[in-house]
Amino acid sequence: MRADIADRTAMGDLFARHQPSAVLNFAAETHVDRSIDGPAPFIQTNIVGVFSLLEAALQYVRAGASAAARAFRFLHVSTDEVYGSLGETGLFREDTPYAPNSPYAASKASADHLVRAYVHTFGLAAVVTNCSNNYGPYQFPEKLMPLTILNALEGRPLPIYGDGGNVRDWLHVDDHCAGILLALTTGQSGEKYNIGGSNERTNLQVVDGICDALEQLLPPARNPALGGKRYHDLKTFVADRPGHDRRYAIDATKARAGLGWQPRHSFETGLLDTVRWYLDHREWCAAVQADRYDRERLGLHV
Question: What is the per-residue pLDDT across 149-205, written as a single tens digit (0 to 9) for each?
Protein backbone atom coordinates (compact mmCIF):
# COMPACT_ATOMS: atom_id res chain seq x y z
CA MET A 1 0.00 0.00 0.00
CA ARG A 2 1.20 3.51 -0.82
CA ALA A 3 0.14 6.36 1.45
CA ASP A 4 1.26 9.78 2.63
CA ILE A 5 2.63 9.61 6.19
CA ALA A 6 0.84 12.91 6.83
CA ASP A 7 -2.49 11.13 6.17
CA ARG A 8 -3.48 10.39 9.75
CA THR A 9 -6.38 8.11 8.83
CA ALA A 10 -4.25 6.02 6.46
CA MET A 11 -1.51 5.65 9.09
CA GLY A 12 -4.02 4.52 11.70
CA ASP A 13 -5.45 1.97 9.30
CA LEU A 14 -1.97 0.60 8.55
CA PHE A 15 -1.18 0.12 12.22
CA ALA A 16 -4.51 -1.60 12.84
CA ARG A 17 -4.16 -3.86 9.80
CA HIS A 18 -0.54 -4.95 10.17
CA GLN A 19 -0.05 -4.86 13.97
CA PRO A 20 3.67 -3.98 13.74
CA SER A 21 6.15 -4.62 16.53
CA ALA A 22 8.23 -1.69 15.25
CA VAL A 23 8.16 1.18 12.76
CA LEU A 24 11.28 2.72 11.27
CA ASN A 25 10.63 6.12 9.76
CA PHE A 26 12.89 6.73 6.77
CA ALA A 27 10.22 8.78 4.98
CA ALA A 28 11.38 12.35 4.41
CA GLU A 29 12.00 15.11 1.95
CA THR A 30 15.78 15.16 2.11
CA HIS A 31 17.53 17.38 -0.45
CA VAL A 32 18.70 20.72 0.95
CA ASP A 33 18.64 22.42 -2.45
CA ARG A 34 14.98 21.58 -3.01
CA SER A 35 14.13 22.86 0.48
CA ILE A 36 15.57 26.22 -0.58
CA ASP A 37 13.47 26.31 -3.75
CA GLY A 38 10.30 25.16 -1.97
CA PRO A 39 10.17 24.55 1.81
CA ALA A 40 6.47 23.61 2.03
CA PRO A 41 6.80 19.87 1.19
CA PHE A 42 9.53 19.57 3.82
CA ILE A 43 7.29 21.01 6.50
CA GLN A 44 4.40 18.78 5.44
CA THR A 45 6.31 15.49 5.32
CA ASN A 46 9.08 15.98 7.84
CA ILE A 47 7.04 17.65 10.58
CA VAL A 48 3.34 17.01 9.97
CA GLY A 49 4.10 13.51 8.69
CA VAL A 50 6.16 12.56 11.73
CA PHE A 51 3.45 13.96 14.01
CA SER A 52 0.90 11.82 12.16
CA LEU A 53 3.05 8.69 12.61
CA LEU A 54 3.60 9.39 16.29
CA GLU A 55 -0.11 9.89 16.89
CA ALA A 56 -0.96 6.66 15.08
CA ALA A 57 1.73 4.79 17.00
CA LEU A 58 0.57 6.15 20.34
CA GLN A 59 -3.05 5.19 19.67
CA TYR A 60 -1.93 1.72 18.61
CA VAL A 61 0.21 1.19 21.72
CA ARG A 62 -2.45 2.48 24.08
CA ALA A 63 -5.01 0.10 22.61
CA GLY A 64 -2.58 -2.76 23.36
CA ALA A 65 -4.58 -5.21 21.28
CA SER A 66 -1.64 -7.52 20.56
CA ALA A 67 1.70 -8.62 21.94
CA ALA A 68 3.32 -6.70 19.11
CA ALA A 69 1.61 -3.50 20.20
CA ARG A 70 2.72 -3.98 23.78
CA ALA A 71 6.34 -4.47 22.67
CA PHE A 72 6.22 -1.70 20.05
CA ARG A 73 9.23 0.51 19.30
CA PHE A 74 9.53 3.54 17.02
CA LEU A 75 12.79 4.54 15.33
CA HIS A 76 13.16 7.91 13.63
CA VAL A 77 15.99 8.36 11.11
CA SER A 78 17.41 11.89 11.23
CA THR A 79 20.51 13.74 10.05
CA ASP A 80 23.65 15.45 11.28
CA GLU A 81 22.42 18.66 9.62
CA VAL A 82 20.25 19.44 12.66
CA TYR A 83 23.44 20.42 14.50
CA GLY A 84 24.39 23.21 12.10
CA SER A 85 27.93 23.86 10.91
CA LEU A 86 31.27 23.02 12.52
CA GLY A 87 34.50 24.99 12.37
CA GLU A 88 37.76 23.41 11.29
CA THR A 89 37.83 21.19 14.38
CA GLY A 90 35.34 19.36 16.57
CA LEU A 91 32.68 16.69 16.08
CA PHE A 92 28.92 16.50 16.49
CA ARG A 93 27.97 14.62 19.67
CA GLU A 94 24.50 13.58 20.77
CA ASP A 95 24.48 16.50 23.21
CA THR A 96 25.56 19.10 20.62
CA PRO A 97 22.97 21.92 20.63
CA TYR A 98 20.70 22.02 17.59
CA ALA A 99 21.35 24.87 15.14
CA PRO A 100 19.71 24.01 11.79
CA ASN A 101 20.59 26.36 8.93
CA SER A 102 18.31 25.25 6.07
CA PRO A 103 14.57 24.58 5.82
CA TYR A 104 15.41 20.88 5.41
CA ALA A 105 17.55 20.79 8.56
CA ALA A 106 14.96 22.78 10.51
CA SER A 107 12.20 20.37 9.52
CA LYS A 108 14.27 17.37 10.62
CA ALA A 109 15.18 19.09 13.89
CA SER A 110 11.49 19.72 14.56
CA ALA A 111 10.74 16.03 14.00
CA ASP A 112 13.53 14.98 16.38
CA HIS A 113 12.04 17.18 19.08
CA LEU A 114 8.57 15.73 18.50
CA VAL A 115 9.89 12.19 18.93
CA ARG A 116 11.65 13.18 22.16
CA ALA A 117 8.45 14.79 23.44
CA TYR A 118 6.37 11.67 22.76
CA VAL A 119 8.87 9.59 24.74
CA HIS A 120 8.97 11.87 27.74
CA THR A 121 5.33 12.99 27.76
CA PHE A 122 3.47 9.87 26.63
CA GLY A 123 5.96 7.07 27.31
CA LEU A 124 6.22 5.97 23.68
CA ALA A 125 9.26 3.72 23.20
CA ALA A 126 11.29 5.55 20.57
CA VAL A 127 14.87 6.10 19.44
CA VAL A 128 16.40 8.74 17.14
CA THR A 129 19.45 8.18 14.92
CA ASN A 130 21.37 11.03 13.33
CA CYS A 131 23.54 10.01 10.39
CA SER A 132 26.17 11.63 8.23
CA ASN A 133 26.01 11.82 4.41
CA ASN A 134 24.99 8.46 2.95
CA TYR A 135 26.27 7.05 -0.31
CA GLY A 136 25.86 3.80 -2.20
CA PRO A 137 23.48 2.17 -4.70
CA TYR A 138 19.93 3.31 -5.50
CA GLN A 139 20.47 6.95 -4.51
CA PHE A 140 18.38 9.46 -6.45
CA PRO A 141 20.53 11.42 -8.93
CA GLU A 142 19.98 14.82 -7.31
CA LYS A 143 22.58 13.82 -4.69
CA LEU A 144 26.25 14.65 -5.17
CA MET A 145 27.68 11.21 -5.94
CA PRO A 146 25.13 9.88 -8.46
CA LEU A 147 24.79 13.30 -10.09
CA THR A 148 28.55 13.52 -10.57
CA ILE A 149 28.85 9.95 -11.84
CA LEU A 150 26.02 10.25 -14.36
CA ASN A 151 27.05 13.70 -15.58
CA ALA A 152 30.62 12.49 -16.06
CA LEU A 153 29.48 9.48 -18.08
CA GLU A 154 27.58 11.81 -20.41
CA GLY A 155 30.37 14.40 -20.68
CA ARG A 156 28.28 17.00 -18.86
CA PRO A 157 29.71 19.58 -16.41
CA LEU A 158 30.41 18.42 -12.85
CA PRO A 159 29.09 21.30 -10.71
CA ILE A 160 31.01 22.05 -7.51
CA TYR A 161 29.61 24.66 -5.13
CA GLY A 162 31.84 27.55 -4.10
CA ASP A 163 35.47 26.56 -3.70
CA GLY A 164 34.64 22.87 -3.21
CA GLY A 165 35.94 23.02 0.35
CA ASN A 166 32.72 22.12 2.17
CA VAL A 167 33.42 19.02 4.26
CA ARG A 168 31.08 16.09 4.87
CA ASP A 169 31.46 12.81 6.74
CA TRP A 170 30.55 9.97 4.34
CA LEU A 171 28.78 6.79 5.45
CA HIS A 172 28.02 3.79 3.23
CA VAL A 173 24.31 3.01 3.21
CA ASP A 174 24.93 -0.62 4.26
CA ASP A 175 26.82 0.55 7.36
CA HIS A 176 24.05 3.02 8.13
CA CYS A 177 21.38 0.32 7.92
CA ALA A 178 23.39 -1.95 10.21
CA GLY A 179 23.55 0.85 12.78
CA ILE A 180 19.83 1.53 12.51
CA LEU A 181 18.98 -2.12 13.10
CA LEU A 182 21.17 -2.19 16.21
CA ALA A 183 19.61 1.04 17.50
CA LEU A 184 16.14 -0.42 16.99
CA THR A 185 16.84 -3.73 18.70
CA THR A 186 19.28 -2.74 21.47
CA GLY A 187 19.09 1.05 21.74
CA GLN A 188 17.60 2.62 24.85
CA SER A 189 14.25 4.37 24.45
CA GLY A 190 14.56 8.13 24.57
CA GLU A 191 18.19 8.07 23.43
CA LYS A 192 19.85 9.46 20.31
CA TYR A 193 22.66 7.71 18.46
CA ASN A 194 24.96 9.45 15.98
CA ILE A 195 26.01 7.16 13.14
CA GLY A 196 28.94 8.42 11.08
CA GLY A 197 31.59 6.90 8.87
CA SER A 198 34.59 8.93 10.11
CA ASN A 199 35.31 9.66 6.45
CA GLU A 200 35.65 13.42 6.19
CA ARG A 201 36.12 14.62 2.61
CA THR A 202 35.68 17.95 0.88
CA ASN A 203 33.21 18.02 -1.98
CA LEU A 204 36.14 18.56 -4.32
CA GLN A 205 37.86 15.44 -2.98
CA VAL A 206 34.69 13.43 -3.55
CA VAL A 207 34.36 14.62 -7.14
CA ASP A 208 38.05 13.92 -7.77
CA GLY A 209 37.63 10.44 -6.29
CA ILE A 210 34.72 9.73 -8.62
CA CYS A 211 36.73 10.93 -11.61
CA ASP A 212 39.64 8.70 -10.58
CA ALA A 213 37.31 5.71 -10.24
CA LEU A 214 35.79 6.36 -13.66
CA GLU A 215 39.27 6.62 -15.20
CA GLN A 216 39.86 3.10 -13.88
CA LEU A 217 36.47 1.54 -14.68
CA LEU A 218 35.66 3.30 -17.98
CA PRO A 219 38.79 5.01 -19.37
CA PRO A 220 38.12 8.21 -21.35
CA ALA A 221 39.26 6.59 -24.58
CA ARG A 222 36.32 4.18 -24.28
CA ASN A 223 33.76 6.90 -23.57
CA PRO A 224 32.91 8.86 -26.74
CA ALA A 225 30.75 11.30 -24.74
CA LEU A 226 33.93 12.92 -23.44
CA GLY A 227 35.05 14.06 -26.88
CA GLY A 228 38.69 13.53 -26.04
CA LYS A 229 38.53 15.12 -22.58
CA ARG A 230 39.32 13.53 -19.23
CA TYR A 231 36.68 13.24 -16.53
CA HIS A 232 38.56 15.75 -14.39
CA ASP A 233 38.25 18.31 -17.21
CA LEU A 234 34.49 18.45 -16.60
CA LYS A 235 34.78 19.97 -13.11
CA THR A 236 32.92 23.29 -13.00
CA PHE A 237 32.87 25.63 -10.01
CA VAL A 238 29.51 27.36 -9.56
CA ALA A 239 28.08 29.92 -7.16
CA ASP A 240 27.55 28.51 -3.69
CA ARG A 241 24.05 27.77 -2.44
CA PRO A 242 22.53 30.01 0.26
CA GLY A 243 23.33 29.03 3.84
CA HIS A 244 25.75 26.26 2.82
CA ASP A 245 27.17 24.72 6.02
CA ARG A 246 30.95 24.48 5.85
CA ARG A 247 31.70 21.28 7.71
CA TYR A 248 29.91 18.31 9.30
CA ALA A 249 31.60 15.51 11.22
CA ILE A 250 30.10 12.95 13.57
CA ASP A 251 31.41 11.46 16.79
CA ALA A 252 29.97 7.92 16.69
CA THR A 253 31.51 6.84 20.01
CA LYS A 254 28.12 6.25 21.62
CA ALA A 255 26.91 4.01 18.78
CA ARG A 256 30.18 2.07 18.76
CA ALA A 257 30.29 1.56 22.54
CA GLY A 258 26.57 1.33 23.31
CA LEU A 259 25.37 -0.61 20.28
CA GLY A 260 28.51 -2.51 19.26
CA TRP A 261 28.32 -0.89 15.84
CA GLN A 262 31.30 -0.67 13.50
CA PRO A 263 31.37 0.46 9.85
CA ARG A 264 32.56 -2.24 7.44
CA HIS A 265 33.25 -0.14 4.33
CA SER A 266 36.31 2.03 3.82
CA PHE A 267 35.56 5.16 1.84
CA GLU A 268 37.90 4.23 -1.00
CA THR A 269 36.43 0.75 -1.49
CA GLY A 270 32.88 1.97 -0.98
CA LEU A 271 33.29 4.76 -3.51
CA LEU A 272 34.71 2.44 -6.16
CA ASP A 273 31.87 -0.04 -5.61
CA THR A 274 29.33 2.78 -5.83
CA VAL A 275 30.71 4.08 -9.14
CA ARG A 276 30.72 0.53 -10.48
CA TRP A 277 27.06 0.07 -9.43
CA TYR A 278 25.91 3.18 -11.32
CA LEU A 279 27.87 2.10 -14.38
CA ASP A 280 26.05 -1.24 -14.29
CA HIS A 281 22.58 0.20 -13.64
CA ARG A 282 22.16 2.97 -16.17
CA GLU A 283 18.62 1.79 -17.01
CA TRP A 284 17.52 2.19 -13.38
CA CYS A 285 18.98 5.70 -13.29
CA ALA A 286 17.14 6.67 -16.47
CA ALA A 287 13.87 5.24 -15.18
CA VAL A 288 13.87 7.09 -11.84
CA GLN A 289 14.70 10.41 -13.53
CA ALA A 290 12.22 10.10 -16.40
CA ASP A 291 9.91 13.13 -16.61
CA ARG A 292 11.02 14.18 -13.12
CA TYR A 293 14.57 15.49 -13.11
CA ASP A 294 17.23 16.18 -15.72
CA ARG A 295 20.01 16.79 -13.20
CA GLU A 296 19.48 20.53 -13.47
CA ARG A 297 20.79 22.69 -10.68
CA LEU A 298 18.49 23.10 -7.68
CA GLY A 299 18.68 25.49 -4.75
CA LEU A 300 18.90 28.67 -6.82
CA HIS A 301 16.28 30.58 -4.83
CA VAL A 302 17.69 33.59 -2.99
Answer: 999 999 999 999 999 999 999 999 999 999 999 999 999 999 999 999 999 999 999
Q: Name the helix (H) or strand (E) containing 186.
A: helix 173-186
278 assigned to active site:
no
What is the spatial distance between Cα 263 and Cα 265, in angstroms, rounded to a whole number? 6
Q: Which of 33, 80, 112, 208 is catalytic?
A: 80
**Domain for residue 251, yes or no?**
no
Determine whether 191 is an active site residue.
no
Is 301 a residue whose pLDDT tops 60? Answer: no
* Residue 35, domain CATH: 3.40.50.720
How many domains does one find in the chain? 1
- Which member of 60, 83, 104, 135 is catalytic? 104
29, 33, 81, 175: the catalytic one is: 81
282-289 and 144-153 are packed helices; what angle lies between their axes, rounded to 10 degrees? Answer: 110
DSSP E strands, 20-166: 22-25, 73-79, 126-131, 133-135, 158-161
**103 located within any domain:** yes
- Mean pLDDT is lowest, of 31-35, 48-52, 123-127, for 31-35
pTM beyond cutoff 0.70: yes
